[in-house]
Amino acid sequence: MLNPQHPMQLALGLTVWSVWFVALYGGLLTLIGPLDQWAHTGTGPHMVQHMLLMGLIAPLWILLRPQAQLVRGSGALGQPLIGGLARLARHPLWMAYLHGGAIWLWHLPAVYDLALDHAGWHAAEHLSFLLTAVLFWWAVLSTSARRSPFALLALLLTLMHTGFLGAIMTFGREPFYADARDLQDQQLAGLIMWVLGGIPYLLAAGWVTRRWLLHLSRRMANA
Amino acid sequence: MTETTPVQPHEATEQTRSLHQTFSRVWANWPGLGSLAAVNHTTLGLRFMITGLIFFLIGGVLAMLARTQLALPEQNILTADVYNQVFTMHGTIMMFLFAIPVLEGLAIYLIPKMIGARDLVFPRITALGYYCYLFGGIIILSSLFLGVAPDSGWFMYTPLSSAEFSPGPGSDFWLLGITFVEISAMAAGIELTVSILRTRAPGMTLRRMPIFCWYILAMALMIVFGFPPLILASILLELERATGMPFFDPGGGGDPLLWQHLFWLFGHPEVYIIFLPAAGIVSTLIPVFSGRPLVGYRWVVLSIIVTGFISFGLWVHHMFTVGIPQLAQAFFSVASMLVAVPTAIQVFAWLATLWTGRVRFTLPMLWIFGFLVIFVCGGLTGVMLALVPFNWQVHDTHFVVAHMHYVLVGGMFFPLIAGLYYWLPHVTGRLPSERLGKWGFWLTFIGFNATFLLMHLTGLLGMPRRVYTYEAGLGWDWLNLLSSVGGFIMAAGVAMIVLDLLLHARLGRRAPANPWQADTLEWATATPPAPYNFASQPTVTSRHPLWDQSDVAQQMAAGEGHLGEVQQDQRDTLGTDAITARVAERCHLPGNTWLPMLSAAALAVVCIGLLIRIYPLALAGCLVAAVFLLRWSWLNGGHPLAAPLTDAELAGKDDDQSPPLESRTLDGPGRWGMIITLLANGTLYASLLFGWFYLWTASPQWSAPADSPLATLPLLATAILVTVLTLLYRDRVRHLQGGEDRHLAAALGSLTVLGAIATGAVLWVMVSAPLAATEQAHDAVLMVMLIYLFWHCGLATVLTGLQALRVRLGYVSAHLPYETRVLQPFWVYTCGVFWLSLAAFIGLPMAWGGG
Known about the structure:
Chain B: Belongs to the heme-copper respiratory oxidase family. Chain B: Pathway: Energy metabolism; oxidative phosphorylation. Chain B: Residues 21-541 form the Cytochrome oxidase subunit I profile domain. The structure holds two protein chains of two kinds. Chain A is built from ten helices and no strands. Chain A is mainly alpha-helical. In chain A, helix 6 (109-117) crosses helix 7 (119-141). Among the domains of chain B are: 363-516, no CATH class; 703-851, Cytochrome c oxidase, subunit III, four-helix bundle (Four Helix Bundle (Hemerythrin (Met), subunit A), Up-down Bundle), CATH 1.20.120. In chain B, strands 1-2 form a two-stranded antiparallel ribbon. In chain B, strands 3-4 form a two-stranded antiparallel sheet. The model of chain B has no long low-confidence stretch (mean pLDDT 93). Classes of the chains: A mainly alpha, B mainly alpha. Chains A and B meet through helix 6, helix 8, helix 9 and helix 10 of A and helix 8, helix 9, helix 21 and helix 25 of B.
């Protein structure tokens, strides 16, 4: 499909490639690089790590449409699994509930501190964030024209509830978590979730709307 | 208004004349006092706008009183107390009784005509909304004449508005009255959403929808998501004032800042709820008067939706000075700049349309240019206010007052008047006076700028807002005097407009059909319009039907389109697919009825009962309202007074070619209405959850007992019971969809009994729990949560019981499965709320643990 001779196609190819590059290496950097060390120094940096996972890497990865390759490469065992996930990903609102459930659950102080103390739980935390985020973004970003309004609702819901959680962390009268250096650290974490974390959802809302309108006009042209 | 014979878009023949007479007989309002029972959108849209205009004039008089008082230093025309009431009522009336209702009225009047429909999809809801608005407005206004008007400012900050510092009934008038008026906003929001999505003329896909409809759709959805936080906050504050539940009182573990969060959670979207429809007017008028389509339709739609999203995240920038963390101020200062982006997209789209078109400089365009100038200035001062240091400097000064008036008058009033002049020929069939209109514009424009441009300076020189007088020699004297003079010039301009409105109905020239050569379908009606709008509905093939589809108006009026004849003496309009606009069903619309007015009157009794604290009266009002509302729900679907099964249908012979009635389908607009209502309801519940978490983590003296005071196991058992009920209900509905309706009445009857048991269980938990709701905010929130569960469980049960009865009477059956499908989402929602409540109010405190 891609024709490297054509300048537009080449530019598109380069864009896709660089997005892939950012997603992959950004992801590695977040999980194992210096950022992970930094994430142990306070709630704010830790939140940056989570936000990169959920708000940057997951959506970029989905935008690369890796599903086809995954199905190819995963063999007899993985294919039904990916097919099952694909069925789940047809329901943006349910995926938003699932993702929201994971976010709120891991932010309960007792659960959060558990993850801080045990590397295994920490891995589980990151895995559940990443997995539910991937499902959420998959459902939202590759939705059909008919389900686009639900994708927008799912985005609004997620924007609002992460905002509420961020607000609660911002206005809390004392630190909730064991890794907070001080109250300001937690406020920073809350604001990163509330304000910076909201940007991917806003951009996605614009993207979904644009895609939806394009779908509709294409259908109109065909009709 | 006048007995003008309507201008018809077609040559009347004998045949079309008799067609229109038949339609008129079915669709006309009752004569005389009977017109109070009208449900027609044209009638009610106009009533909304005229009522709003009257409230605007009253609000304007209050503004003139305030300006008179401030014209010279150290005056005593108004006492401090009266002045407080005056500015509070000015803001309240202009926001809640003028701006929002007038725009709703405009949308109610225009939307069905623009989308080629005959009426809104829930006509009785339109009427209920109007009466709630009228009665609520009168109740609020009466406080002014009783001398006990609210006086804590239009945003009613606690603790100033709490019982301790506002002991009189003023705050109660505001809280109860505004909540009552908000029923009309919610009604309009839900109804407009469903109407736009489900009753567009065949072929009008979303892409072919006039841009105005996108704006109104966004406004309607923002009402659905934006108003619930304020409704919840008002209920909580009124509960605090009436019973002492300390939601906002730090002494009892509450927090006054919670009010501000909930208020601005509504208040920021509300700015856009007001601005978007006005921008919709601009986006409609500019292309018409430029003689070309809007530049960047898709970009404008995109920016509308993004504006809606952004507006739900920025409420904190109204609270820079109340003592929130400095870090938060920095973040929101930057984030506030974001708002400018989607608005700028629209401004550039308008400029590009003007630039590339051939502009006709008409009276409406004059107001549009006024809008562009003033609104852009207001936007710029808004960016200034987003800078925290500057915000701190001018907080609570007249600079903020000036900014707000630039945004609201520039962003809403100017486009509104442009729209008024544009659509006036549609409403009355006559043209206004160009000369009076120009006087009106220039007086308003000059007067407005004289008042508010100078007021920026007054504010920068340090004059605080909401003070009833000031000392001479502070440098504010001449500014205030000029502002007052400007205010009176603006008032003269408004008087010109009103005079023009009154005179043109008698003296105006007859307007030809489609006088502005517009592109949208509302100009395909007769002018003034007939109550049924169109004798037949069109097939739309273009975004600009009147430009691109020649003769569409004539064909519609000649009855050559869809539903071109009256069937069974019923009012009807087509229901179409939300996206593709393919014909899905024929919606039977109810005719004139007193029920909406009676229901609203009963609710007004509730409101008054609560105000004067005679609770038996309020309870009686509730019961009467319930009777009227349930009777209303009874007259639907297969009821003999609605759309009963015909003999052919009973015999199973369905040879009718026309689309099925919505009560014979599974997914009509009613189900959409239910779901949109539940979205609003869910937002209310989410706001309650936010309040709970907020108080838990931020309230300075929050105290929670170690163990939940609620009986956990019984609540858990009830939640399981409700889940089982929901599943059983769903199962019955699925059978019904498959055409299986044996033992349906018995099954629904037993579900009702189970529902009653669940409702009783919640009541028992509520009564038996040792809750000190009037002493501890913790217990007060739990109490509200339990009342919420009780209400939902009880309502679901009652409605299921009514369904059982209707099955027995034959109004619901395999032929008529629709109503059970409408009720189903309510059970699912109730079930969801049960589990969420268990998790958040009982599970979470247990899991909070060591933190």
